[in-house]
Specification:
Two copies of one chain form a homodimer.
Chain A lengths: L1 H6 L6 H9 L14 E10 H13 L6 E4 L23 E5 L2 E6 L10 E7 L2 H9 L5 H4 L6 E7 L9 E10 L3 H9 L10 E2 L25 E7 L3 H9 L4 E4 L5 E6 L6
Antiparallel strand pairs in A: 1-5, 1-10, 1-11, 2-5, 3-4, 3-10, 6-7, 7-9, 8-9
């Protein structure tokens, strides 16, 4: 049902959809809205954690490709969206305190503080549309599911208080198109870029490919290879592991819709 | 003469050359040493400036592509060099206080403090060897000069206390090879990546192409186009503009030689 609703918003401009979200008229996932425009993962942290998190992102660029960092205390953005209010323009937020999810909200302006710093992180929605344009199938879209995501045994490079295991997403790719799936996504390093692993799931600590920790299992056909990309859930997993006092994130699938096109992420 | 001396070090391993530098046996520029290995620009700042500078780098990735950030107070590195002592392993350092160059040193261990943070930034030496491998001529190397560098009228994106104009390097490229110069360097975003401008110098505020602010003027032949890349001198220019209390940098051309190959910067 959400997918059908969202078709109505595919051809709208990001600013117009953000306005509907801000008014509370959209409170569901943003999948498929504003076709061609990049959507972003959100992490908001108190300034005392901002250096460690920015350093974590620098040390783990495939997991945490930073699209923009706000000025301390600011809910506005300079580059990826005009006239945005980051505390109101996502359809659903989560607040974690000391690693525990303490609530979901459609507006976090009441929680805003002068010491909060906004981080927006690239999202695989951008490279999925590039894969489809290149005739590489994306199974979870075909099956109307969420992408399957797995916690690996790969340690992120720690930075200050932040550490944790890398989370990856998986797409089964027909063997003849695996190379193309690499080249297409490699051209978009700001949205996770090339795969982190191709083939045997157990090589990166995944025990059962049919039991993802996040999202949904998808069909893997004979003749297809499992291909794994770094995933924007990694920072949320790291927050749960590292337990900062206070953090705001988007709710999974409820992304920030930017004014920049996916194609602009190819430089 | 330096160039001739440096040929002796072209086939040595980085660790061995760093050991000679640490002992004080090499105190000149590192151009051509350890062929195939990446060299890096150095910026060392007190922790109180580290977030602003890391944010500046994030907002200006073509000027300041960060290869590694050290842990606060540490002179060691985790990724781009093993057993390095960042306070001793560069042949020449500069110290700036409140934007003023107060000294040049071959060892800065006596100035080290527990609050200093090391930033290593990609260097165009890496993409120049890729250009030569692709049969794109590099004029200042042919002429035995330093690359010509210019301050543009392009503002870097400011971050906290740091702001300033972008500095670019220029290489004259035969018209038939301009496209190749773009594709070769675009594949190396961690060492400045693709050009920032192709053609008319005045379009980016350069008044006289024969009078670079840094480095040397080079010959521009009939049939060649001036091609401009972001330059690792930008952070030093920003330090002089923004005047932090204390900063250590490399002396121009006296780079840190890493253990990673230029080819490893292509992911």
């Amino acid at each position: 049902m959400e997918g059908i609703d969202n078709l109505k918003y595919a051809d709208m401009q990001p600013k117009a959809v953000r306005a509907l979200i801000r008014k509370g008229e959209i409170d569901w996932n943003t999948s498929g809205m504003c076709a061609g425009y990049a959507q972003a993962n959100l992490v908001v942290l108190p300034k005392k954690y901002a250096y460690d998190f920015l350093l974590f992102a620098q040390r783990n660029p495939k997991s945490c490709p930073v699209l923009e960092v706000g000025d301390t205390g600011s809910r506005a953005l300079r580059h990826i969206a005009k006239d945005a209010d980051i505390a109101k323009d996502l359809p659903k937020y989560r607040i974690y305190e000391k690693g525990i999810l303490t609530g979901e909200y459609t507006d976090v302006s009441g929680f805003w503080r002068d010491d909060l710093v906004v981080f927006l992180i690239g999202c695989s929605f951008s490279f999925e549309s590039a894969l489809l344009d290149a005739d590489v199938p994306v199974r979870h879209i075909e099956e109307g599911k969420n992408v399957p995501m797995y916690t690996t045994d790969i340690d992120c490079v720690p930075a200050g208080v932040f550490s944790g295991k890398m989370v990856v997403s998986m797409r089964p790719i027909p063997r003849g198109k695996v190379v193309r799936s690499v080249t297409v996504t490699a051209s978009m390093p700001r949205v996770h870029g090339s795969p982190i692993h191709i083939g045997d799931p157990s090589a990166i600590g995944i025990r059962d490919i049919n039991k993802p920790e996040f999202g949904d299992a998808v069909t893997i056909n004979e003749g297809e290879t499992t291909v794994f990309w770094c995933c924007g859930v990694t920072p949320q997993s790291v927050m749960m592991n590292s337990k900062p006092d206070f953090v705001i994130t988007h709710a999974p699938g409820h992304m920030f819709i930017t004014d920049i096109k996916n194609n602009d992420l190819k430089d």
